[in-house]
Amino acid sequence: MGGLRVTLAGADVAQFLAMVIPRGMVAEFKVGFEGFTYEQFETVGLYTFRGLSGSRNNWTMEFSDFFTLLQAPQSVHLSGQFYKDAGQNKANVTVTWDPGDATLETDGASASTFPKDGSSGARGLLYCEPTSAGSEPFYLKFTAVGSSSGVSGVLDPSLTLGANQFEIADANVIGTTRYRLNPSDDVTLIGYVHDMVPDVAYMVLFGGLAGASTMPDNWHMDLNYSSHLTNRTDLNRWRSRWTSFYMDFNADLIVSAPMENAYRGLEEFLSAFGWWLVFKEGALSFRFVQRTVPAAGYGPLDVAAYVITDADIVSEDGYQLYNPDAPVEYFQVYYPSAISTDTASPFSSVGTRPAEFRLDHPSRDRVFNDDVSSGYESQALINLRGRLDPWYARIPDQMSLTLKGWRFAELVPGDVVSLESNYIYDMVNGFDIMLGESVDRHHNGTQYLVTGVDVNWSDFSVSVQLSTPPYTA
After folding, report:
1. Are residues 348 and 454 in the same domain?
2. 26 pairs with which residues across the strands?
3. Residues in Cβ contact with 400 at an 8 Å cutoff, skipping those fewer than 6 apart
């Protein structure tokens, strides 16, 4: 998104702002034309005030982008840490537990000390440290925690959980194997959210889905879903696109220790699935990599939301056949449940150098089958290889264009555009032989992923960075 620098009208304005705007305050950057009322101005972005500098009658305000604010701690106190109880709250087993037992009895468990997502069907997560010979640490999922007045089971409603009892899901989870737990063995609370990728983002950002609040305190960033700073229409549109066009699966956000930076934690989780947060027209939303070229036996989807033609292009400012952000081509990618191979030809393992044999994809640590479904890992494989393989097993290009007007100012990284040009050569896919044996060397509907947007307010133009992998391996 980038920062912002604003030149002020003079020292009087600078003095006034110095008295009323503290460092760290959120500001909306609005743009309009002469004669517009304030209500007609449109929000372009959110920023945080960083400082005021200058001398005499020349003063400027400096702003950081809003993502910087999202990375700041919610509180200066340790009690305000994100997932403050993850990895900290422990209990000792009091009665021997064996795999398959419906309940686990401890010496100090309650719903307040061992919290979990409160949405229907949600599970909490325990890290168990058995002491039996030949055993190894493992995870258990629990569905309810008892109390002295009794709590009904979720998996078995006829079950009544007393104080310090957990109801346990009968399955090996998070890729581990269960062992016997003996009295005095430790179990530790782990922060845990298990849902579709976009819904995990909803829960961490807002505390629940569509304005609901089901997450424990300090397990979410407490952003206001109903605020005008949240682009609800765009969020829901992209969530619907995910569920409508791509194989869905549940992913696992696992937090084993308190986080200082909630935004970075969510960003790391989302990036494992080709997702990221954006500000669309001045409000929070998200994007993900779509299937724009053939991969893993699937054809491309026509997902371009914008068309760029020669009439829009002021200049082609730069082109690189091999994107510098993709320094290595991989022969194989190891996703959850299986390895995916996308070779350059039947006669060679890769098409370019340098190359590496295999990438252990970060999604492998974030998708696991459980007692609800044994298909999450295989479903994730189908989704990820079709969308992400071309970006690992082929080297995308990079193109920079300047576009006239501000019509494309609403683009954000992750949008897809269709490039139609009779002048710009298609270097990544080469030329096509047309009817009558004519040669088409240019772009005729090439789908490009937007990777960067820079609005040039002074000369009424927009600079965009685009990238696409080769159409075929």
Report:
1. no
2. 48
3. 316, 317, 318, 319, 463, 464, 465, 466
Q: Which domain holds residue 354?
A: 327-393
Q: Could you read off the pLDDT of 37-92 as tens digits, one per residue?
A: 988 888 877 888 999 999 999 999 999 887 776 776 555 444 457 899 999 999 99
DSSP state at residue 298: B
As given in the structure block, the two tokens for residue 43 are 């929000």
Please check whether residues 220 and 98 belong to one and the same domain. yes
Instruction: Say yes or no: 344 and 428 in one domain.
Output: no
Return d(Cα 286, Cα 2) in angstroms, integer. 17
Last residue of a domain, one of 393, 421, 436: 393
8 A C-beta contact, residue 401 and residue 419: no
Indicate if 310 and 208 belong to the same structural domain.
Answer: no
Q: At residue 462, what is the residue type?
A: V
101 plus 249 within the same structural domain = yes
Indicate whether 93 and 180 sit together in one domain: yes
Pairing of strands 42-55, 103-105: unpaired
Give the closest residue to 426 by CA, choosing from 471, 391, 387, 395: 471
pTM exceeds 0.85: yes
Predicted pLDDT of residue 190:
98
Are 137 and 111 contacting, i.e. CB atoms less than 8 angstroms apart? no
Angle formed by the axes of helices 197-206 and 232-245, nearest 10°: 160
pLDDT of residue 78: 45
Low-confidence ranges of the chain (pLDDT < 70): 1-2, 69, 72-80, 343-349, 433-438, 473
Q: What is the C-alpha separation between 83 and 125, in angstroms, rounded?
A: 13
Residues 6+ apart with CB under 8 A from 239: 198, 199
Residue owning tokens 């619907």: 240
Give the model's pLDDT for residue 288: 99
Residues 132 and 226 in one domain: yes
What whole-number distance in Å separates Cα of residue 413 and Cα of residue 285? 11
- At 473 the pLDDT is 60
Q: Return the residue matching tokens 């690992």.
A: 392
Could you say which of 351, 377, 393 is where a domain stops? 393
